[in-house]
Amino acid sequence: MAHAEAAAAPRGGARATRAFSPFEWIVALRYLRARRAKSFVSVIAGFSFAGIMLGVATLIVVMSVMNGFRQELLNKIVGINGHVFVQATDTPFTDYDAVAKRLEAVPGVKLVIPMIEGAAGVSSPFNQSGALVRGIAGPNLRRLPGIEGHVVQGTLDDFDKSGGVAIGQRLAESLGLSLGDQVSVLTAKGAQTPFGVAPRIKSYPVVAIFQIGMSEFDSSFVYMPMAEAQSYFNKDGEASVIEVFVDDPDHMDAVRLRLDRAIERPAVMTDWRQRNKTFFDALNVERNVMFIILTLIVLVAALNIISGLIMLVKDKSSDIAILRTMGASRGSILRIFLIAGASIGVSGTFAGLALGVLVASNIERIRTALNSLMHADLFPSELYFLSHLPSVIEPGDVLAVTGMALALSLLATVYPSWRAANLDPVEALRYE
């Protein structure tokens, strides 16, 4: 027994190999290559590589699409509705011009637009629908971020004098209208008569058709000149709301304080965060849950690395014993299997990184190709509010996904490597 222990000990004159030396890399990578007789370990390594690659790629694509959803929806919702909304209390909003001028002078304010708003029914000889009618001055309509550059038919020149309306493209398609056609606008709050309030209906020519890119707005918004809207909704000389656009909508608190001081009259002020809080909170929750769920894909692939390395240690137990008797230290054996496992994780992570960035950068082209191939609509705008599939690659998210995958992959190699380093050479060679 003493003779066997002496044989198992490293030679006294042998020097320990340098950490992560070429010898350790050569042995580790050789263990990962399959031989015809024993290829099962390499098959598991291949599945582990594919699992980590697909997990990382899927995470990057999903996070990018979620970021794109948030940015697009924020731009569309805020771009057409403003960042801050000022509504009068106690007295009618007849001094809206003076209030608008004071608000425009506030630092950080980009645009101030007084409006008339009212719900109405719109109809044509072919169909009818509900709509939100907005009265706005022509120069302000041309400056409105959601409308500027999005007019697909007609023009907004001389909008105040045109006597017509601008409608969304989906609403025009739903009503079967084109440029120059008449659209009837109906509201229940019409003229006051001895018998009560009579409904009011009036026809207007369509002078412009716009496409915001968000189906909910394109199918429900109607813009008419401010003076006409005041007359139509019985609000002569009044405004319903003043919408304020600011330079930095993500930092509203400081701007709100300055706006509140500039109003100088009884009013209620809300901002986009309050009006859309539930919607954007739901998006954030969904984004976080998707990250946790898809992380499980990477975790399962990391567990495959553990099982594959444990099988590799069992398969190579005699080789490990021989290396130990030839002078390899426990640290050297530990590093060999660390390199073998980390090679799978690191290569899979960076392959997934490249694949994920490539897919996320071309997600709309891929969607269009799949739609043509499958003759189906994989992203119906009626359900998702957007006319295209958005994707925004955030470097912080990519780094977080990559770091998480690398950490899980490296942690998965610790136990099998420790087990290989503590293998008893005598026991391993006893039955060889």
Secondary structure blueprint with pairings:
Elements (H helix, E strand, L loop, with lengths): L1 H7 L13 H11 L7 H42 L2 E5 L7 H9 L4 E15 L4 E9 L1 H6 L7 E4 L4 H4 L2 E4 H7 L6 E6 L4 E2 L2 E2 L2 E11 L4 H4 L2 E5 H7 L8 E6 L6 H11 L3 E5 H4 L1 H39 L1 H9 L4 H32 L1 H12 L6 H4 L10 H18 L1 H8 L3 H5 L3
Parallel strand pairs: 3-10, 5-9
Antiparallel strand pairs: 1-11, 1-12, 2-3, 2-6, 2-11, 4-9, 5-10, 6-9, 7-8
Helix pairs in contact: 2-14, 3-12, 3-14, 3-17, 12-14, 12-17, 12-18, 14-17, 14-18
TL;DR?
The protein has 432 residues and is of the alpha+beta class. Helix content is 55%, strand content 17%.
Account of the protein in words:
This protein has 2 domains: 17-72 and 280-429, no CATH class; 91-265, no CATH class. Residues 1-14 have low confidence and may be disordered. It has a 6-stranded mixed barrel with strand order 2-3-10-5-9-6. Strands 7-8 form a two-stranded antiparallel sheet. The protein has helices at residues 2-8, 22-32, 40-81, 96-104, 138-143, 159-162, 169-175, 215-218, 226-232, 253-263, 272-275, 277-315, 317-325, 330-361, 363-374, 381-384, 395-412, 414-421, 425-429; strands at residues 84-88, 109-123, 128-136, 151-154, 165-168, 182-187, 192-193, 196-197, 200-210, 221-225, 241-246, 267-271. With 432 residues, it is α+β, with helices and mostly antiparallel strands.
User: What structural class is derived from the secondary structure elements?
Assistant: alpha+beta
SS field, number of helical segments: 19
Q: Spatial order of the strands in the main sheet?
A: 2-3-10-5-9-6
Which stretches of 5+ consecutive residues score pLDDT under 50? 1-14
The percent range for helix content is 55-70%
Q: Determine Rg (CA atoms, Å).
A: 34 Å
Number of strands: 12
Give the termini separation.
Answer: 17 Å
Main pleated-sheet profile: 6 strands, mixed, barrel
Outline: elongated
Please state roughly what percent of the residues sit in beta strands, choosing from under 5%, 5-15%, 15-25%, 25-35%, 35-45% or over 45%.
15-25%
Mean pLDDT: 81
Count structural domains.
2
